[in-house]
Amino acid sequence: MPRKVRTHIAGAEELRSFPLAPKSLTKQEFGKRLYRLMLAKGWHQSELARQAGVPRDAVSVYIRGKSLPTPVNLQKLADAIGLPTEELLPNHAEGAIDEDELPAFEMKVSSGAPNMAWVRVNRLVSTQTAVKIAELLDNDDALDRNRSGKEAALLAK
């Protein structure tokens, strides 16, 4: 049965288009999601805290995107809001990706070898994609070529 959205709440249009089960959420996205769901119930932070049986300060921390709830508090929040935990926070088992700490992809060209680069991937991908990345890295013999070139240059001196 589809959920009814209260239309007298500010931002109700956003609530209608709000996806119920995204693949993963950052702390900040979870905070926004919890806030919208709280408003959809017509609650303030204090009421959500009372209904869930969690400290009001904890609700504030979650809504501001500073932290994710513990598994116990996640269950309490989900029960209060009326959603399964996996819909409220789908990626809880993996932990949240903090978008402020690391970018999803980072590449830095080596100052000592301009044909070489350091690569960092901080993104949840399928196992198939992860295996492909590992194979690419394993088959990349650029490091060996670079070392051979430096050794040859040293021997030539």
Automatic annotation (TrEMBL):
Alphabetical list of InterPro entries matching this protein: Cro/C1-type_HTH (IPR001387), Lambda_DNA-bd_dom_sf (IPR010982)
Pfam families documented for this protein: HTH_3
Residue ranges constituting the HTH cro/C1-type domain according to the UniProt record: 34-88
The organism's place on the tree of life at top rank: Bacteria
GO MF annotation, one: DNA binding
Protein name, UniProt field: HTH cro/C1-type domain-containing protein
Species per Swiss-Prot/TrEMBL record: Haematospirillum jordaniae
